[in-house]
Amino acid sequence: MTKRIALGVEYQGTGYCGWQRQSHCDSVQGWVEKALTEIADHQVELHCAGRTDTGVHAVGQVVHFETANSRPLKAWVQGANTKLPYDIRIAWAKEVEDDFHARFSAVARQYRYVIFNRAVHSAVLADRVTWEPQWLDHDIMHRAAQALIGEQDFSSFRAAACQASHAMREVQQVTVSRRGDFVFIDIQANAFLHHMVRNISGTLMEIGRGEKSESWVETLLKQRDRTQAGVTAPASGLYFVNALYPDELEIPRVPVNEVLWQ
What angle (nearest 5°) sits at the alpha carbon of residue 71, between those of residues 99 and 4? Predict the structure, then answer.
């Protein structure tokens, strides 16, 4: 009898060309599928909640796969982790119903963008955060970001190579906060466009440095022109935090404030 298993996966994306399996470089999907294939004793194909790009991290990626072989849930976690590199880990495993899909069953997704805002960069945080030496006014950034809330056309914040059929997305909440030298941009939406969070973050950083006005985000949304918005912020600061599912599915969630110790 075939079972469907959901897993929580976390990884530091620095050394990988993103989540998606590719023939010419190391991917997170490639490593996890290889490890699970050894445990399952058959080829495993994973479906994920949201693909991440080169250098992007995750603490709450959700995936699923099917298997006809019976294994205790801890085998998918502990067994697979012995076969994974140090910067990829399976955090939990759960048997789910046959109609569960890591991507299509999700009702929202959460990302956190982490900025280390100090004159001198941190040696131990290199590749895990985005460094910004100029002081950022997080209060102005937060107020500006509220223009993003709601179902809108996010053409000004989509990558040129984005393959989505349209740019309408619903941002459900967004906050900008500070703790010491860290500035956090937390955003939740029903779905995201390619580079959407990084493009929003780059725009908000320009506002935080005082280079653009607080009303700039609202103006950009109306213009629907990517060339008018801020630069794409580096991948190193971006974390896929959670895919959110209906409560009755009981899919584990990562507390947002646990990402980079806030």
Answer: 10
**CA angle (181, 185, 190) in 5-degree steps:** 165
Question: Is the pLDDT reported for residue 261 higher than 70?
Answer: no
Size of the chain in residues: 262
Residue 114's nearest CA partner among 216, 231, 262 is: 262
CB-based burial of residue 239 (10 Å sphere; 0-12 exposed, 13-18 middle, 19+ buried)?
Answer: buried
Catalytic residues: 53
pLDDT tens profile 154-198: 999 999 888 889 999 999 999 999 999 999 999 999 999 999 999
For tokens 């990884």, name the residue: 11
With CA atoms as reference, report the closest residue to 188 among 208, 214, 170. 170
